[in-house]
Amino acid sequence: MDKFIGDGILAYFGFYANSKHAFGAVDAINSALELRKSFKHIKSNWIKLWNLNEDDINISLKCGIHSGNVLFGLLDTQTRSQITVIGSSVNLASRLEGVTKASQIIISKDTKELIQGTFKERSINVKHIQSYPDIKEVYEVVEFR
Length: 145
Fold this sequence. Notes:
Radius of gyration: 16 Å
Distance between the termini: 26 Å
Order of helices and strands: EEHEEEHEHEE
Number of strands: 8
CATH class: Alpha Beta
Largest sheet: 4 strands, mixed
Structural class: alpha+beta
Number of helices: 3
CATH topology: Alpha-Beta Plaits
Number of domains: 1
Strand order of the largest sheet: 3-6-8-7
CATH superfamily: Nucleotide cyclase, GGDEF domain
Oligomer: single chain
CATH architecture: 2-Layer Sandwich
Shape: globular
């Protein structure tokens, strides 16, 4: 895990993986599927603890996953020292999360090509992804194949 961003989390996978292999993409999607499963259980427990109805609370999990090159390193200033990733691949993953709906795991075409046949996914047409006007199709991961 890299950092908390408001109510979100940035994580990166595949640091040790060869870029020609899908290890990072598969690990990221497996983590998102497990997180979605755990989130439903945790949410249900908290709703019971707070004595609420499911309809009383509107909180959900969304994941955007993209595979690509990033600048990885230590950002070191006088007030903060942090190992992180930056670059257009990080930005696209964030934009993908931004177009997801509740409980969706959305992946880019690049990630889909890496994980061919590993997961069941469906195509989703998108009207606009900020800063990426050429992207008109993304993919929702439905389940492990």
